[in-house]
Design a protein that fits this description.
133 residues, mainly beta, Lipocalin, ten-stranded antiparallel β-sheet, 57% strand, globular, binds arachidonic acid
Length: 133
């Protein structure tokens, strides 16, 4: 089911991302970048290992993981998190914990678009990616 995410996606809309970044503790200068940048998201799978790569002029990060197995992640905003990614009813659910905090990013495919819902307490940001031609 993770196959439905495989390919190259481009950010086409972003709602409330500044508030989400504030909620997870991202400082002003990095938030300016986060607000401006329209990353490409590349998913691939090789022998059960999923690669999720976020590419932009400002920063490129690659996360490699196996479903259900906790790993150490360094995020684009430089948090060091314990992360576990699961597949729940076709949704890829990424749970990050650090410094006693927890955030979840849920990704699923809606009408052929990849929708990333970033949740921190009561703050939710929705970012939509479309397949690159
Ligand atoms: C998505 C949403 C996932 C983003 C989650 C956390 C990143 C938090 C802050 C990023 C801030 C600065 C980094 C700037 C640019 C790098 C690329 C933007 C983040 C993906 O998958 O869209």
């Amino acid at each position: 089911m993770v196959e439905q995410f495989v390919g190259t996606w481009k950010l086409t809309s972003s709602e409330n991302f500044d508030d989400y970044m504030k909620a997870i503790g991202v400082g002003f200068a990095t938030r300016q970048m986060g607000n401006m940048v329209k990353p490409n998201l590349l998913f691939s799978v090789d022998d059960g290992v999923v690669s999720m790569k976020s590419q932009s002029t400002f920063k490129t990060t690659e996360t490699k993981f196996k479903l259900d197995e906790e790993f150490d992640e360094t995020t684009a905003d430089d948090r060091h998190t314990k992360t576990v990614i699961t597949l729940e009813n076709g949704k890829l659910v990424q749970k990050q914990t650090w410094d006693g905090k927890e955030t979840t990013i849920e990704r699923d495919i809606q009408d052929g678009k990849l929708v990333a819902k970033c949740i921190m307490n009561d703050v939710v940001s929705v970012r939509t990616y479309e397949r690159e031609a």
